Amino acid sequence: MKTRYFTMGLVGLALAAVVVLAGRAQAADTYKFVIRGQVTEVDKANKTVTIYTTYTATEKAKNDLPGNTFEFNASGARYYKYDAKGKKVRTTIGNVPVQAEVVVKGAKRAEGRYNISELTVNPSSFSLVGTVQAHDKGNKIITVEVSTSTYKETSIKGKDIKIYYGNNTTFRNKDLADINSDELANNKEKVKAAGTVTNGWKYEATSVIDGYEKSK
What we know:
Residues 16-27 have low confidence and may be disordered.
């Protein structure tokens, strides 16, 4: 009888050791991470964001995330973006655009689940040259057919894009003298516009040069 008790005791110890080792292995497989990537899908109803990871400096994540697309649980996450002045401001999951570049802080949990604690939509600066197609002075929108661009040129070259401007946007003529926005020619002249792409689609200009080909 003593032998039986002793054997059962060994079995119990072995099982306990297995549980401890499994717990340690599971804990070793979980970690916090910071990644940069591109949004491929946003599910507002289920609060998930699918991201293709392009870069991480987190050592434990380097074998898991870069070059792969995963669905991240974004329930309870904080969302940020940069406004036209470069200020980081709060936003919502509904304002996270597909194809936007994002920086994500989060953690890998058990069973390969990834949770987001913070997601920031990265700003993208642009400088482009194109031909004015239209000027909506009331809504402060210039439509330009793009010739060259520092931002996604292959995607927008030869296409019409809308450039938004505001009261803080500077306008200059071909001699680089300040002009009013309503003096911008709508006669197929070249313009150079620079600014920031916000929310992955909105071109917000900080400066516009009219008659750029002739400018100094």
